[in-house]
TrEMBL record, chain A:
InterPro entries: PhoU, PhoU-like_sf, PhoU_dom
Residue intervals of the PhoU domain: 23-106
Record-linked PANTHER family: PHOSPHATE-SPECIFIC TRANSPORT SYSTEM ACCESSORY PROTEIN PHOU
Lineage: unclassified sequences, metagenomes, ecological metagenomes
Name recorded for this polypeptide: PhoU domain-containing protein
An individual GO BP term: negative regulation of phosphate metabolic process
Length: 222, 379
């Protein structure tokens, strides 16, 4: 361990943290897929441990990244302060995505199944789109594609409005609670996953002081 | 992601060029040591005796070492100067040992000052102040144990002399040092220039000493700045690894390696203070890294001593290393003793957390009042 000091350092510093963030995103996509599959007819009991283990890994990675950011700031001084602040902010959003994915899985674990639901097609569409969007989040952070980020944010806003509309429909519907409540919760969780992914991607186009406030800035949209 | 300018090419200097700059600065440092030692040879005996009359008293020597280090904010500078003094014959090994111990204590002032920056947030300040003062307490305890022991037995100086004998032999008052040969030429240029300007005797001696100290100070300042840039990534990886190490010995070694690399224990310990303040590192994590930094910083004086060609100077540099290693041997392996400086640091931090003015009073008292009084009274 001490002799490794004299070897050329493997990726350290912010590059290492970048890689860990990508790892968090991969884990977030994995738990999202497992959770949505569990709700729409896929396995539940057999994937429960995997979901919880992955969620714990996301949480541990968040703590590790925060610690490494503090070490980085102490060793290098204030040169990378904006990047450090962005990473600090980003890992919180990624951890929240992990939490909401677990909340989605908990619905299935509680016995909710939408496998026979009349709107299954729409739910599977949301599942596929959000899963792709979680992966795209990682790509946009790597490529720093500002146009792509703006398009991502625009579509994300549309999705959030759609989820709000679904929730409002359920609020005013006459469906029994056993039907309406799980759906309302699901759309709420999907809206939060979408919102947190927008927060993450906003780092590509927004300055540090206005992270998350992309909805107040027309220039962030395609 | 927001891209910030990378620090690795500060001022457009590439890594290989920066490494060459560091070597050049090292050369300047060694030249400074040579000039310093040479300068004292020009001074009159009465003047030299007058300057250093206080250091024959061990406590006086201790406070001189302490005050000198606080003034220059670097134990590397002060111990290099002490080594130069010994090489020139102005100060003997027995007189230099307490000075070196004082230098060890004085170097902790930087970390304490860094901790004061956290004063506005009570819990953060408590952790930061404890992290800084654990170094103070270790050094003070080591002096409390080893200074009387050294006075009574000469254990450190005798052991160091034996090691010097084994490594370079003790025949004659000097040994053939390749480093000394390397710096003779530039030192000679400075002497010749001053002679042409009409300097001689005490004036020549004073100028050589002043230029020598300036070279040492400037060289070390820029060496630490450049080395910090060169090895920052490795230091970061090393600290991250140390956090997960679990082993105190590994943490000690990491502290040593980092400090040797950046040539400054103050940088190592000052990096640890904000980590402690944020709670990322505990006092128990920091303590062994600090001990390693104490040992790592003795390398500079060892290097300086090798440039003097004086076995006595090498002995003093080895005493510095042995003193720190002995301190570790007493205050680390046994848990009860290991906890003494940790508990003292926590206790003081708990005290000052609610009375922040006491932290300032401690800093001023410990690093200004006490050394000044010590030097004035014991001279």
């Amino acid at each position: 361990m001490v002799m490794s000091f004299f070897r050329k350092p493997e990726e350290g510093g912010l590059k290492h943290i970048d890689a860990q963030v990508q790892g968090m995103i991969n884990d977030a996509r994995h738990t999202f897929d497992l959770a949505m599959n569990a709700l729409t007819g896929g396995p539940v009991a057999t994937v429960a441990d995997e979901v919880r283990r992955t969620d714990r890994r996301i949480n541990i990675t968040e703590m590790e990244i925060r610690r490494e950011l503090v070490v980085h700031a102490s060793v290098h001084g204030g040169v990378d302060t904006p990047e450090v602040l962005v990473f600090m902010h980003m890992v919180k959003d990624l951890e929240r995505i992990g939490d909401y994915n677990k909340n989605i899985f908990d619905l299935a674990d509680e016995g909710v199944s939408l496998a026979e639901a009349p709107d299954l097609g729409r739910l599977l569409g949301y599942r596929d789109e959000l899963s792709s969007r979680i992966a795209l989040m990682g790509e946009l952070l790597t490529t720093r594609d500002e146009d792509g980020a703006r398009a991502y944010i625009t579509r994300g806003d549309e999705l959030r409005r759609e989820f709000d509309d679904r929730i409002n429909e359920l609020v005013h519907s006459t469906e029994p609670a056993v039907v309406a409540v799980p759906r309302a919760l699901l759309y709420r969780f999907l809206k939060r996953v979408t919102a947190h992914s927008l927060n993450v991607v906003s780092a590509v186009v927004m300055p540090v002081d206005r992270l998350d406030y992309f909805d107040e800035d027309d220039e962030t949209r395609a | 992601m927001i891209e910030t300018p990378r620090r690795t090419s500060e001022g457009g200097i590439s890594t290989p060029v920066r490494a060459v700059v560091v070597l050049a600065l090292l050369y300047l440092f060694l030249t400074g040591v040579e000039l310093l030692g040479g300068g004292f040879k020009y001074l009159g005996k009465d003047l030299v005796d007058g300057l250093f009359e206080g250091v024959s008293n061990p406590l006086g020597g201790f406070f001189v070492g302490l005050l000198a280090t606080i003034l220059v904010q670097s134990s590397s500078v002060s111990t290099s100067v002490i080594v130069g003094l010994v090489a020139s014959g102005v100060v003997g090994v027995d007189e230099a040992v307490p000075m070196v111990m004082g230098a060890n204590v004085g170097t902790t002032v930087t970390a304490v000052l860094v901790s004061l920056a956290h004063m506005r947030r009570a819990q953060e300040f408590r952790r930061a102040f404890a992290a800084a003062t654990v170094h103070d307490f270790f050094n003070i305890l080591a002096v409390a144990v080893f200074l009387p022991f050294e006075i009574a037995t000469g254990f450190l100086s005798r052991t160091a002399t034996w090691i010097t004998d084994q490594v370079i032999g003790s025949s004659g008052a000097s040994f053939k040092s390749p480093l000394k040969e390397a710096v003779k030429m530039p030192a000679g240029w400075v002497r010749d220039l001053l002679e042409k300007l009409g300097a001689h005797g005490d004036v020549m001696g004073g100028l050589l000493i002043g230029i020598g100290v300036a070279f040492i100070f400037v060289a070390l300042a820029f060496i630490t700045r450049n080395m910090r840039l060169l090895v920052a990534d490795r230091v970061e990886v090393a600290i991250n690894r140390a956090l997960g190490a679990g082993s105190g010995m590994v943490a000690i070694l990491i502290g040593m390696v980092i400090t040797i690399s950046v040539q400054s224990s103050s940088i190592t310990t000052s990096v640890l203070v904000p980590l402690a303040a944020s709670g990322v590192l505990t006092l128990e994590n920091i303590y062994p890294v600090t001990l390693g930094a104490n040992v790592g910083t003795t390398v500079t004086a060892l290097l300086a001593s090798l440039a003097t060609g004086s076995p006595a100077a090498v002995t003093v540099a080895i005493v510095h290393t042995l003193f720190n290693l002995s301190g570790i041997a007493v205050f680390y392996p046994v848990r009860a003793l290991r906890n003494v400086p940790i508990r003292l640091a926590r206790g003081l931090a708990d005290l000052v957390m609610d009375r922040r003015s006491m932290a300032v009073a401690y800093t001023v008292g410990m690093f200004v009042v006490v050394p000044l009084l010590g030097v004035l009274i014991l001279r």
